[in-house]
Amino acid sequence: GQSLEQPSEVTAVEGAIVQINCTYQTSGFYGLSWYQQHDGGAPTFLSYNALDGLEETGRFSSFLSRSDSYGYLLLQELQMKDSASYFCAVKSFQKLVFGTGTRLLVSP
Amino acid sequence: GAVVSQHPSWVICKSGTSVKIECRSLDFQATTMFWYRQFPKQSLMLMATSNEGSKATYEQGVEKDKFLINHASLTLSTLTVTSAHPEDSSFYICSAREPGEKENTEAFFGQGTRLTVV
What we know:
The complex is a heterodimer of chains A (about 110) and B (about 120).
Chain A: E1 3-5, E2 9-13, E3 18-25, E4 32-37, E5 44-49, E6 53-57, E7 60-65, E8 70-75, E9 84-92, E10 95-98, E11 102-107
Chain B: E1 4-7, E2 10-13, E3 19-25, E4 32-38, E5 45-51, E6 57-58, E7 67-73, E8 76-81, E9 90-96, E10 108-109, E11 113-117
Parallel strand pairs in B: 2-11
Antiparallel strand pairs in B: 1-3, 3-8, 4-5, 4-9, 5-6, 7-8, 9-10, 9-11
């Protein structure tokens, strides 16, 4: 089967740095993506890693280690608006399979 | 980025009735669209892959006779929840990827449809 595991919840304060981990086990792997979803909203794309290493996009960075079937999303200079759910996702053949999701709560 | 529009954004229906949800790609052609279901505080679960001009591919455990998918054109896929029951109440989201370089990277999602069956 396919599984992508994430911590269920992470809390942090404004201005801090937080890392959300994702370990995956899938049949077929074409890359690891990260999506943000606010309550009641649609997921929005944040980042994508096809190869090992770090990808930086503004305050967000994403890392992938294919040999370890592991990746993480790093959020810097946290803002209140970053409070949301974050999902890792693997493109497995044609499908996009989502992780269990991490709820990030940012407090003042 | 590409735009995917989903309608309606919310719907309330009576038990036993059917509800149709539309998903449109507004500025690109999508030969493949995806339908997800999301229960509160849970992840997105893929229900089926909608293929233009052919039958949808359903995930294990998803009843194809209950969740009818039609992908009649390159810009429109519909999901019909037939004989809806309260347990079908959920957030349904469609997704498509823009053909070309970005096909392997970014997926675009509709706004989602909150279905409540009473």
